[in-house]
Amino acid sequence: MKVIFFDVDGTLLSHNTNQIPESTIQSLEALKEKGILRVLCTGRHMKELEEMNFSYMDFDAWILLNGQLILNKEKQVIWSNPVINHTLIDLFVQNKYPIQLLEEKDFYINYVNDYVRFAQKSIHTAVPEIKKYNGNVIYQGIGFVNEEQEKELKKLLKDCLITRWNPYAVDIVSKDGGKGKAIKQFLHLYNLSKEESMAFGDGFNDQDMLKEVNIGVAMGNAVDELKEMASYVTNDIDYDGIYNALIHFNIL
Fold first, then answer.
1. PANTHER family, alphabetically (predicted)?
2. CB neighbours of 150 closer than 8 A, spacing ≥ 6?
3. pTM (2 decimals)?
4. Could you give the CA distance from residue 36 to residue 20 in angstroms, rounded to a whole number?
5. Residue-wise pLDDT tens digits, 135-174
6. Which domains does the chain have, with CATH numbers?
7. Contact 38, 6 (CB under 8 A)
8. From CA 106, how far away is CA 103, in angstroms rounded?
9. Distances (CA, A) of 104 to 70, 139, 164, 192
């Protein structure tokens, strides 16, 4: 095994304790000592990771915004996949739904309602700042919508990939985007094969990630859909899930 990709929320970070389990921290350090690349693969923005103290962790690369940006160890962009969709911008400007836009260096929202507050509270994250669209390149959107509104969004944004990550929110990326595409690109950039890769995840947006690696591990707290297609289902995050899976596959 030469590279392992890790989701953040529910995989590295427990939302029960709002901490990374000690066994996971020790596992990451042990992988480093073995020379195995540890790559963060998350829907989060780097600004959020900085606030969570993740940016100070010694990862070998960063796949952000559900695969829309790949950063190297020094946090320099080495690949990107922007969202080119004028309808998304129109929906933001018209305030049809609460929509968060994420650029490379910043993110903001058009307005805030209870869906926004509930979704952000569930991941222990502050409500985004309200700003106007400034014309910069957008890499991801987040729509704070219910399931009926999600259907409307999918009709309006047919050339986007929309994935629910919370009862109150969906991610919006390029139709050809997602964590899986970014992992394929990463393996190409680093001259690695699928057979040399592994990934850990727990959510709907981790499905394509697990498909693009040799060993796809679903956390014990993962959604059922991810467990059904995973190579292996490990323990819950709060019961040493990552460590136990690495032991199971004789990686540690």
1. PHOSPHATASE YKRA-RELATED (PTHR10000:SF25), PHOSPHOSERINE PHOSPHATASE (PTHR10000)
2. 143, 162, 164, 170
3. 0.92
4. 20
5. 999 999 999 999 999 999 999 999 999 999 989 999 999 9
6. 3-81+177-248 (3.40.50.1000), 86-174 (3.30.1240.10)
7. yes
8. 5
9. 11, 7, 22, 26
